[in-house]
Design a protein that fits this description.
With 478 residues, this protein is of the alpha+beta class. The chain has helices at 205-211, 233-259, 425-454, 467-477, and strands at residues 16-19, 26-29, 37-39, 46-48, 55-58, 74-77, 80-92, 98-106, 110-117, 120-127, 139-142, 145-164, 173-181, 184-190, 195-203, 263-277, 293-296, 317-318, 322-324, 328-336, 341-351, 357-371, 374-380, 382-390, 393-403, 411-420. The protein has two domains: 6-211, no CATH class; 261-422, Jelly Rolls. The protein is built from four helices and 26 strands. The strands form four sheets. The protein has an eight-stranded antiparallel β-barrel. Strands 18, 19, 21, 22, 23 and 25 form a six-stranded antiparallel sheet that branches. Strands 17-16-26-20-24 form a five-stranded antiparallel sheet, with no helix packed on it. Strand 6 and strand 7 form a beta hairpin. The longest helix is centred in the C-terminal third of the chain and has 30 residues, at 425-454.
């Protein structure tokens, strides 16, 4: 705290006292020579203290009451000791919205205002300068910062206590406009005769409690008009870093993709698998028993199983050999002409040197039809499989397939392409998702916080009137 304490107050600033002309109760002035209005604590009579005869401005019209921060209480805010010398309660005309204003005084620093609304506190200082457009414009610039209109109302004084350096009484009305740039607020109150402009900053409730430990503080509810977002600058930094990380991931993915060969290693295009129907005779006959089909390449012949020959579902297809020059990832794309049926492919990649095997499985199914006059379909007649980090070497692919349907000539046409040296875009999407999860949460919290703030406003964040306000004004005009 500075050395400008109340214990060192000059003699001319000492407390003056007089009796209420209505009830005779004692009234003590703390800003002698400055205050022009005082309110009797016993009967609420408003007195003109600048008048030698202590003229009554407003007779007692309301029972005296205690304020949450008692008149005469002293507390330190922003390094200066302040004394509470006045209190005004104001209402927005035609609503239930109200707030409290405390007048603070220090003989060296002058006057300040401490405003409380729904448990949120703002510390105001009067500006002795005009601000172009205040009360009319939706956006203002002050100290190189942009302020947006938050509320614009007709307000009236509901109650007064203490002393003031201006004329004030219950029932006084004015036009009030608030602009915000959290944690700051610009506020103007104008009448036909004058306009007062104040600049405020949000004060955390715990600082108010520390300054005035015996005050009865209201628990904060909702979001204050100029309350700074807890996700403010730190949240902006997190979102910015997340965007940078996402950009780096995209660039790296494109760079890696551009440097890979993305070559077709082997293609089995339009290759049919021959299906040999199984006979219905006994096992000892020269044909096979019913219940299955035998697969073979066109032109191949197969011996029907006998009692000594086990039944088989068909012969696998073995592709020609191919070489992978370096460790790489590969992709298998399989397509069929399945129509209202299914096909399963068991695929095995075999290293001809080490005999290492890499098994894969693909299932293809496609169904469609009409249901109550509406067409429907499900599934696909193609499949895709990835293998990562396949070592360099000489390989061939073994394809074993089965299906529940065949074409008229007993064949199941299919095609297969094996490619090496390419990237999977899903890896990028997963990386971006992981990168952006936390910034996304921060953005949602910021949006939720600001939504709560502006839900108490007559305006939108861009300064335009809220829809509900526009409609109500239209109805009132009609």
């Amino acid at each position: 705290m500075t050395d400008r304490t109340f214990g060192q107050r000059p003699a001319v600033q000492s407390v003056g006292a007089f009796q209420c002309p209505t009830c005779g109760g004692p009234i003590a002035l703390r800003a002698v020579g400055i205050s022009v209005t005082a309110v009797c604590r016993q009967c609420s009579t408003v007195i003109d203290t600048a008048n030698p005869n202590l003229r009554v401005i407003q007779a007692a019209n309301k029972k005296a009451f205690d304020t949450d921060i008692a008149i005469g209480t002293r507390g330190e805010l922003f390094g200066t000791m302040w004394e509470v010398i006045g209190y005004v309660r104001k209402w927005v005309k035609g609503t239930v919205y109200a707030w409290d204003e405390y007048l603070l005084f220090n003989p060296w620093e002058g006057f300040r205002f401490l405003s409380q609304s729904n448990g949120h506190w703002t510390f105001f200082k009067r500006l002795n300068r005009a601000i172009e457009g205040i009360g009319r414009n939706t956006k203002l610039t002050y100290d190189d910062q942009t302020y947006t209109v938050f509320n614009k109302d007709r307000v009236f004084v509901d109650a007064v206590q203490g002393e003031f350096y201006w004329r004030v009484k219950t029932g006084d009305e004015s036009d009030a406009t608030d602009y915000i740039c959290p944690p700051y607020m610009l506020s103007s109150e104008s009448t036909d005769d004058e306009i007062n402009i104040t600049h405020g900053v949000y004060v955390e409730p715990n600082l108010i409690k520390k300054a005035f430990p015996y005050a009865r503080l209201v628990t904060p509810s909702g979001v204050g008009a100029c309350q700074p977002s807890p996700h403010g600058s730190q949240g902006d930094t997190i979102v910015r870093l997340g965007a940078i990380a996402a950009g780096v991931a995209i660039v790296l993915h494109l760079a890696i993709s551009g440097g890979l060969p993305n070559k077709s290693v082997i293609e089995v295009t339009g290759h049919p698998i021959q299906v040999m129907p199984l006979p219905t005779s006994t096992p000892s006959a020269s044909t096979q028993p019913a219940g299955g089909a035998m697969w073979s390449l066109p032109g191949e012949t197969q011996t029907a199983p006998t009692a000594q020959t086990p039944q088989t579902d068909g012969q696998p297809v073995v592709t020609e050999s191919f070489t992978l020059p370096r460790m790489t990832n590969i992709r298998l794309d399989t397509a069929t002409q399945i129509d209202n049926g299914w096909a399963d492919f068991d695929l095995t990649l075999i290293n001809e040197t080490t005999q290492a095997t890499y098994p894969m499985h693909e299932s293809v199914s496609y169904y469609h039809g009409l249901d109550d006059g509406e067409s429907w379909h499900e599934g696909h007649n193609a499949a895709r499989t990835w293998l990562s980090s396949v070592p360099a070497g000489r390989y061939h692919l073994v394809i074993d397939a089965e299906t529940d349907q065949f074409s008229k000539d007993g064949q199941l046409p299919f095609s297969l392409t094996l490619r090496r040296g390419l990237t999977e875009w899903s890896n990028l999407w997963i990386a971006l998702l992981l990168i952006l999860i936390y910034p996304g949460i921060v953005l949602f919290r910021q949006w939720s916080f600001e939504s709560q703030r502006w839900s108490n406003s007559d305006f939108k964040p861009d300064g335009s009137r809220a829809a509900s306000i526009d409609s109500s004004e239209t109805e009132s005009d009609e």
